[in-house]
Amino acid sequence: MTRQITETTNVDPPPPRESIRALLRRRRRGVGRFRGIQYWLRVRGYYFLAAFAGLFVVNAVVIGGRVAYDVTLQIDSPWDTSSPALALPLSLAGWLVVTGFAGAVAGYVVTEVTDNRNIGRMRGRGNARRIALIPLLDRLQYRRHGFEVPHYFGIRFALRHDGDWARAQDHWEIIVEKFLNAAESDRTHGPRQAMWQAVLEASYVLDGMSGKCPVCEETAAKGEGRTDARQ
User: Fold this and answer.
1) Count: domains in the chain
2) What is the pLDDT of residues 162-188, one digit of tens each?
């Protein structure tokens, strides 16, 4: 016990607040918890929406905003506009967006309800609400976080990084992301279940390992490889 307290005092205090950049990074690395259309919407859907918005703006300038709106919603035919060649792609894109995203939203709602029910049955409703993104290491020190991890896992993982909580958090996210992507073939789990299972497996695998963090070892090996290549 005395040794454990001595080690704990050598750890720098966790960062008081997560930066916006770090939060966006954590969100990006956690998209592997989604499957199918939900994953596509978060990874590729933004590009499609940007292209659709650009097409709509061009049509609004050429044929008018009201006409472009009616063509997008299939109210007016693109052949009845002043520029059918430009309005036809907008009409087709509008049909894809309306029908495709409506189906995606319906599927998302069904999956979310089923997932919340399943994880709530396993962990309780209060804990289910906390399972979303890759958890912060310092939050794993507390009891009410929704995940099953070894005792004092977060602080022991920080000790492997010489008390650098920021670097430990970065490497922790990389490892959980790999577990999420490794389970990509399993389509039976919803996003919260997938995250819960990835965090559970990653924490126990890391807790059972001796030596340095695997990400640190991989980075060091790459550095040695570059040095050998230069020589």
Assistant:
1) 1
2) 888 889 999 999 999 988 888 654 556
